[in-house]
Design brief:
mainly alpha; Ferritin; 9 helices; 2% strand
Length: 261
């Protein structure tokens, strides 16, 4: 993991900034998965379970997580595009954690039941940790001595001059879930399949997820040549979403199993 957050006051050179963006790309991938997992845990797009205000609030929070997942996907694309233009390989790995402070990390990965029970607190901690990493990079594009130049400086400025705000998800969850116990707001949780169909759906979900990541890896690396990459990625995402909805109907949280390094 690059750049110790305890040295936040030390300016970074060009390669250090790129190393940090490489790490942040892996964090953004993990955040995409996090938002999609929250969307599924809260019921995907199945709608309120009843006509009451509580069920509607949970459904609204689920929809907000889906919208924020799309924002994270765009950010993942933008960071990778900048890395490629800087001569780096695209980064589609997933970070396993991010430091919250000098003594503790926030774990990233498939959400456990315990993490889902403290969802608002978890997402707030995660947003603070990620935003702090981005904020440290802002001087790299600031006058009078930015570490990039030309078109790459303009691209990096678009990413770093106004660092992204990751507080939207915890804010939406706070609004939607405050006062609602986990046994009410959780519609899908991680557990073992109860029959052959559920096992097959879990495998299909991971198949579409792996396919999506592989398409993005090729598209990000060759965006100027792979003109159908975006459409193929959308097709894979739609397939993943369809399977995940079926899993949520059965109370199963999609696995989003990380690809082997």
């Amino acid at each position: 993991m690059p750049s110790d957050p305890d040295t936040a006051g030390v300016p970074l050179n060009r390669e250090q900034v790129l190393d940090e963006l490489d790490f942040l790309a892996s964090v953004e991938h993990s955040l995409c998965v996090e938002c999609l997992s929250v969307h599924c845990a809260l019921g995907h797009d199945l709608g309120p379970t009843d006509a009451g205000a509580t069920a509607q609030r949970v459904a609204d929070a689920a929809q907000a997580a889906a919208v924020i997942a799309q924002d994270e996907m765009r950010r993942l694309h933008n960071v990778n595009r900048a890395l490629v233009h800087a001569g780096r390989l695209p980064q589609l790995a997933r970070a396993s954690s991010i430091p919250l402070n000098s003594s503790s990390d926030v774990a990233l990965g498939p959400l456990s039941f315990e993490q889902l029970e403290r969802l608002v607190e978890r997402e707030r901690e995660l947003a603070l940790a990620v935003d702090a990493r981005y904020a440290r990079l802002r001087p790299a594009v600031a006058p009078p001595n930015p570490v990039f130049e030309g078109d790459l400086l303009a691209e990096m400025t678009g990413i770093l001059d106004q660092p992204p705000d990751h507080s939207q998800l915890p804010a939406a969850l706070q609004k939607g879930l405050e006062g609602i116990p986990p046994r009410v707001y959780l519609h899908a949780t991680p557990h073992e399949p109860s029959d052959e169909l559920e096992g097959t759906l879990l495998e299909l979900s991971d198949h579409f997820y792996r396919l999506l990541v592989e398409i993005l890896q090729s598209w990000f690396a060759h965006e100027d040549e792979f003109f159908g990459g975006r459409d193929q990625a959308i097709d894979a995402m739609n397939g993943l979403d369809t399977i995940n909805r079926l899993l949520v109907e059965r109370g199963l949280l999609p696995p989003f199993t990380p690809l082997a390094s």
